[in-house]
């Protein structure tokens, strides 16, 4: 009787605490390699919004003619057909002390980049949705977020969480990101500039949702801090031991708190380093977010228990399934469907994601929800891409939800 009571109580507590963990749709939220969806595409963002992510996560870089666009980094090679369309433009450059070969955004005008079509990174040009979607300019992505906020009845709630990528590098090329980033936010209605150049957050219902600025670097976050009211996230590198060593003392955590509201810590550090850093950050008054979860429910328990308030996800549909289970009271709380207490997060938690394993149980089968969401997505994407790819996408979306997950 007592153990049943404890079990029920822990389910209630877990349900309450599960409420506090929200999902950041990494590159839209379907960038793991079990999805066919090209990262940062309209399809990725639409699917993320319909899967219920709290934030859509674009990465922001510059073109040669200083247009801000959305891509994971400055190399167009892995995520588009640039090698076929502009084969002669391949270049090798020293970036951060390393020779890097690719097709770099800073060497292309926006007019050139807008002729390219996106590819899903994991499928080498053979992805089912490759060749359909163009790149977004940052301003267009923000406008699309507004469309999605309306379509999903989440106006005022659907957030964006844009990362300023390689800010020092782009500034050194005379293509600084910060000013244009804030201008794009203002143009999309997230904030309004006063005469002194300070962008005050919009409060009259004009903003589609929260706007959180994100970077690995302090300089752009300090710029955002002195020019806006937006919340700021400082990302800490996953590289070991450099990453964990960056937040090992109270003084280090307090230094981040001077220019950031939130610190995003790599789950790949493992439970011990992640826990220590989380407690230090929270003691310094910082909120903690985690990056990045894939199709594995194991890290969620740790995140919820530590009071982490958001996690980047490479598969938002999977993440939503895990959180729904944590929120729903179970009739048999201690059966195999619950994530194991001793499930430690994987050490090799690479951003591109693991395929589900036998151990990846613990996710409910929302057949009804999945089909309903699939139908709504079909409607939205039908407008965007025509019927063929939508069938593929819908099938894939549903299979991600309750076929792949069953492993
Ligand atoms: C980059 O490649 C060039 C040519 O192969 C070489 O001379 C140079 O040392 C390399 N630089 C770095 C930083 O690896
Ligand atoms: C934890 O951090 C230390 C450095 O502070 C590092 O040596 C160790 O490998 C890290 N553990 C994991 C699992 O990454
Ligand atoms: C996806 O990632 C897993 C683990 O990293 C790998 O084993 C698998 O081959 C990948 N699949 C594709 C289609 O790239």
Shape: globular
How many helix segments? 15
Mean pLDDT: 82
Strand content: 5-15%
Provide the CATH superfamily of the largest domain. Phosphatidylinositol (PI) phosphodiesterase
Separation of the first and last Cα atoms: 35 Å
What is the fold-level CATH name, i.e. the topology of the largest domain? TIM Barrel
| Quaternary status | single chain
Major sheet strand order: 7-2-1-15-14-13-12-11
- Flag low-confidence runs: 1-18, 332-376, 378-392, 398-407
Question: What is bound: which ligands?
Answer: 2-acetamido-2-deoxy-beta-D-glucopyranose
| Number of DSSP E strands | 15
Main CATH class of the largest domain = Alpha Beta
Q: Kindly state the percentage of residues in helix.
A: 25-40%
Secondary-structure element order, as H and E? HEHEEEHEEHHEEHHEEEHEHHEHEHEHHH
Structural notes for this entry:
The chain is α/β, with parallel strands linked by helices and about 400 residues long. The protein has 15 helices and 15 strands. It has 2 domains: about 25-75 and about 130-365, Phosphatidylinositol (PI) phosphodiesterase (TIM Barrel, Alpha-Beta Barrel), CATH 3.20.20; about 365-405. The chain has helices at about 1-20, 40-50, 80-85, 110-115, 140-150, 165-170, 180-185, 220-225, 240-245, 250-255, 270-285, 300-305, 315-325, 365-385, 385-400, and strands spanning about 20-25, 55, 60, 70, 90-95, 100, 160, 165, 190-195, 200, 210-215, 230-235, 260-265, 285-295, 310-315. The strands form 4 sheets. Strands 7-2-1-15-14-13-12-11 form an 8-stranded parallel sheet. A 3-stranded mixed sheet has the order 4-3-8, covered by helices on one side. A two-stranded antiparallel ribbon has the order 5-6. α14 packs antiparallel against α15 (about 385-400).
